[in-house]
Amino acid sequence: MSWALVWLIVGIALMIAEVVSGDFVLIMLGVAALFGAGAEVLTGNLFIDVAVFAVASVGMLALVRPALKRRFLTGPTHHTGIEALIGARAVVLSTVDFEAGQVKLAGDVWSARSMSEHLPPIQPGTSVTVVEISGATAVVSAEP
């Protein structure tokens, strides 16, 4: 059996074993073993194969694995509850000023106020953006 075939079998076996571990270590070693198989095909020298495997393993574990873990294990941020309302659009139901008003937000009627007392009142029917939720009041800003 040639060394290239041994490297290939080891690489594939490590990649299959990664399915069980899920820690992105075995897949890195499996890919490095495939590099070793490639080195065997190109050079036919076992010492060069081992050196290529070692360098590829260290490089993959130090550089690629952290990036993959960040990418796959953190996932997208999904806001729920009040956090999901920030940035949402609402429609003014009754005039909104710095003290009071009402908007239709996410299918519900919310009490609302504008961001600043220096802004003109926002008239009914106007589309607004929720800037923050303060207690049970939506702080809104008129869209440009």
TrEMBL record:
Pfam families: NfeD. It is a multi-pass membrane protein. SUPFAM superfamilies: NfeD domain-like (SSF141322). It comes from the Bacteria. Keywords: Membrane, Transmembrane, Transmembrane helix. The chain crosses the membrane at residues 46-64. The keyword Mitochondrion does not apply. Residues 83-140 form the NfeD-like C-terminal domain. It is found in: Membrane. Gene3D superfamilies: Nucleic acid-binding proteins. One of its GO terms (cellular component) is plasma membrane. InterPro entries: Membrane_assoc_protease, NA-bd_OB-fold, NfeD-like_C. This is NfeD family protein.
